[in-house]
Amino acid sequence: MDPRRAPRTVIDPKVRQVGFFAPPGRSHSAPPEIVSSSSSSSPPVSDLSPSGNSLSPVMIPPPRHSSDNRPVPLPPVPASPLRRDSIVSGSYNPSDFFTATSPTASSYVSRMVAVGEGEVSDDVAAVLSPGRGLARGSLVKAFAAPAVTGASSLPSGGFDLTAVKASSVPLSGLTTVSVVNLPPGIAEKTGGGSVEVQNDIPASSKPQKEKSTKAERRALQEAQRAAKAAAKAEGSKGPGAASASVTQAKPAKSAKAPSQKNENASVVGSEKKGGDRAQEKDRKKDVPHPRMQYDDKSRVEKAKRRAVVKQTEARNRVELFRHLPQYEHGTQLPDLQSKFFQLDPMHPNVYKVGLQYLSGDISGGNARCVAMLQAFREAITDYSTPPEKTLSRDLTAKISSYVSFINECRPLSISMGNAIRFLKSRIAKLPLSLSESEAKASLQSDIDRFISEKIILADKVIVKHAVTKIRDGDVLLTYGSPSAVEMMLLHAHELGKQFRVIVVDSRPKLEGQLLLRRLVGKGLNCTYTHINAVSYIMHEVTRVFLGASSILSNGTVYSRVGTACVAMVAHAFRVPVLVCCEAYKFHERVQLDSICSNELGDPEAIAKFPGREENKDLNEWTNSENLQLLNLSYDATPSDYVSMIITDYGMVPPTSVPVIVREYRREHFWI
Amino acid sequence: MPDVQALVNEFLIKLKKRKIEGSQATARQTAELLRSLISQQRVPYTNQAGALIDAVKAVGEQLIAANPVELAVGNIVRRVLHIIREEDLSLTTAAMAGLNLSAVSDDEDDADHDDHPVLSAAAVAAAARSTLRAPSLQTLLEDVTDAAAVPHPSSSGGDSEGKSKSADKSSRSRKLKHDVIEAVNELIEDICTCHEQIAEQAVEHIHQNEVILTLGSSRTVLEFLCAAKEKKRSFRVFVAEGAPRYQGHLLAKELVARGLQTTLITDSAVFAMISRVNMVIVGAHAVMANGGVVAPVGLNMVALAAQRHAVPFVVLAGSHKLCPLYPHNPEVLLNELRSPSELLDFGEFSDCMDFGNGTGSPLLHVVNPTFDYVPPKLVNLFITDTGGHNPSYMYRLIADYYSADDLVVQRRPATGS
């Protein structure tokens, strides 16, 4: 268990203990008014608050949001009801994410069905199976209908509960009943080692049963934690973070059971990313792998043989972008759909997410990342280690195959790459002593924590920071449909600030129209225009707020294509450009132009004109080899156009990006 | 006369309704209208040029007011005025030359010709020079005297001829009109052939394997690129589609039809692609006297991107697009906003546009400007039908086409009488 803990946790073992329960505990405790019906919810709450107050003694103290880089649960966020409201009202709705994450409990149910099918009587399974179906359904519609997910989400869905969900709590009691039956089965199976599993199971549903075992386990864990904390205290004084983690691992071993010792060794051995042996080695590994170059024929051939998705090469490839995959769009979807039941290696959820990427149903950095993590979470739920194999290796391979499938559907975004790295490092760091169910539970809680801390909470903090930059009478310009900016605008509107929003849009996606509709629906004063008019409209603008797909370590903002144009014009008109981006999207890669690495969208989308007759006949030319249609997805904004980057660690200039990447990178993996 | 008035009214309505697309068509039609106006204008014996100028100015004023943003109208009106003045001047100088030749023989007959016959030749020559030269500071300062000096020889000549009743005087008046119409015909010819003349220079600017970016659609650009293609240059063209009208699609289609390697990109990808582009070639709506360009919307963005990457930004403009005015706040004053329906489909946001926020103003505004202003510092080169020029040279080029008196096409009460 130890290596999974971040090196810099809070000293107080009791607090750290709580930290261990963090994700489920937080999700319960956050809206106390909702969970208060159950008696057991109070202990996590009381445990939480000290942890929230204690400060981590290490590293750069982030300005306001000190809690984020700590693995312990965050201070109960909904302290200010105002903020919570605002975020609920956002249309990239964190509550959606939460409903997406909230199947926690129900997914456990389904997992338990998988685990305990033999032991539990058939009728219990029968009772459960509808619940399972529901959980699946909720994942399918995680982004569509909060009501549906709300129904299937167990009490764990707290935190940002909307009214709908609050009402769903009693509803979910239905499933909870069946859950109550299960944990004994699990306890038998895992031999009482699954602290987190039981904690993940809605504590509210069964408080007394666990009390005794919990206390024992706590004692045990506290001992381990204390040892580790001491180790960490030493480690933090060490030369670098890497060596810190090394030193941290060693003394911790002494306190551990021998089984954990060799497991630790094997972890180090099997690790791909986090080999902590030598610093140089470590540094070398920090350099990101070169990406696949699609003009390398032999490698493309190899990749094709493995590929699940049969891609046909685009007819008229743009010469300049030969190094990027250029495939026909729209042809794979029916093919893949027909294969749905044949693809046994692929988990259905992963498959579904892949299809959603392919069809464009899910877009936007955060949404894609969360959907992928949810799918992986489900896949882990249903995963069972084949005989003769170890979980960490086999699961890593499995995840890799999922990733390559998703990558075939649509090239991974950098944020997704970071999330995958996180997940893989967590898998690699799993102690061997953990039973399978424990390991899976811990991975799932890791995923939940990543989603809630790195994405949802990060967005809240960004909103909090960015809102301070809006004054009355401002004219704000935004481009496309950045989720963080949208939340910020809505929040500022709720605070009663008087400002005007200019939404700039561009073909072919016209995402700005969606944003416009949501903003106008909330009563914001909006102006809509297209990207060519940006230098006309820029005269009246006082601030430009942009989103980002990723921020590279040379300060380059890698974002929706057109962002660079807007930033450039703003720069020319001396208007400050503020980029809102969660820190998990930062990447240590560097990039100077938008050519070397990019994503090519569907070229047909450019030729197509919905509702415009006179341009229809461009299609007849798409067969001509002289005409190429180029639909770039991203571009790179030079850092000198960016005045400020608003991230969950505060507001920094673009020159500070490498610092954040360097200093906070490790936390992401060592949470 | 009435049918000219009908023509004028028809043209006015077309201008007001923005029925005429493109500055070239506008320029040609304006010139044709003025030609018919001139040909139908009854010329008095006295002060023919003045009468023509007044007539043209009267119509020109209406035309300019009908669509103040379409600068080509004003340009052509000024060009025609300039032509009248020049033709009149050349006639006068010719007459003067003949006069000087014959002065020895029959001095008495023509003694009435001028109050100051000795001065006249020199004065006319000076006036001729002054009209051909740029409006120097001196001439600008001496505007009144100069303006008087140019028409005066003619008017005085007309006066003199009015007094005498010889036959060659009517022929001379007819000659003035004839010459003016000839010159206007030449102007129309110029407008129609400016594409070819600009395109002829293409090979001098486009080399092998060049990568060229353009935005929207411009006939001049199309001809320019095709001319280079015909000269066996092989190069590739990036066409940005040019929101909100997406005429880049049409241009791309034309280019492909003529066998050019064409890549169609979105406007938003301009910054991404500009680093791989060797040259930006665009058309213009109008070129101002300071070298600034009123261009289709989006070009300011392209010009900024080109400047950032040190890519030459070349503007193609026929001489009818050269406007002798200096812009003031051109982004707003030389612009017009088009229908929101080009951006949002009708009815799509009708629910949002209806209700107000209490003050009665709608929550949603849609801004759809037509033009962009590209300041001269962002332009590297103008290619006109007379060759390539720096932005800083435009004022001088413009002085060749316009006389300083016509910069304000409004009849002064004094000249109106």
Question: Would you kindly provide a written description of the structure presented here, covering whatever features stand out?
Answer:
- Chain B: Belongs to the eIF-2B alpha/beta/delta subunits family.
- Chain B: It comes from Ziziphus jujuba (Chinese jujube).
- Chain B: Residues 149-175 are annotated as: Disordered.
- The complex is a heterodimer of chains A (671) and B (417).
- With 671 residues, chain A is α/β, with parallel strands linked by helices.
- Among the domains of chain A are: 330-453, Up-down Bundle (Four Helix Bundle (Hemerythrin (Met), subunit A)); 469-598 and 633-670, Rossmann fold (3-Layer(aba) Sandwich).
- Chain A has helices spanning 13-20, 22-29, 32-35, 42-53, 81-89, 94-101, 104-116, 122-140, 146-152, 163-190, 195-200, 208-237, 241-255, 258-270, 279-286, 297-306, 332-338, 348-359, 365-381, 391-409, 414-428, 436-467, 483-494, 511-521, 534-537, 563-572, 604-607, 657-670, and strands spanning 474-479, 499-505, 525-530, 543-547, 550-552, 557-560, 577-580, 586-587, 627-630, 634-637, 644-647, 650-652.
- A seven-stranded mixed sheet of chain A has the order 3-2-1-4-7-11-12.
- The longest helix of chain A is centred in the last third of the chain and has 32 residues, at 436-467.
- Chain A starts with 12 loop residues before the first helix and ends with a helix.
- With 417 residues, chain B is of the alpha/beta class.
- Chain B folds into two domains: 4-192, translation initiation factor eif-2b, domain 1 (Four Helix Bundle (Hemerythrin (Met), subunit A)), CATH 1.20.120; 195-335 and 370-406, Translation initiation factor eif-2b, domain 2 (Rossmann fold, 3-Layer(aba) Sandwich).
- Helices cover 53% and strands 11% of the residues of chain B.
- Chain B has helices at 2-16, 23-40, 48-66, 71-103, 117-132, 137-141, 143-149, 151-163, 167-200, 202-205, 219-230, 248-257, 270-274, 299-308, 330-333, 350-354, 394-401, 413-416; strands spanning 211-215, 236-240, 261-265, 279-283, 286-287, 293-296, 313-316, 364-366, 371-374, 381-384, 387-389.
- Chain B has a seven-stranded mixed sheet. A three-stranded antiparallel sheet of chain B has the order 5-6-9, covered by helices on one side.
- The model of chain B is unreliable at 103-118 and 144-166 (pLDDT under 50).
- At the A-B interface, α24, β3, α25, α26 and β9 of A face α12, β3, α13, α14 and β8 of B.
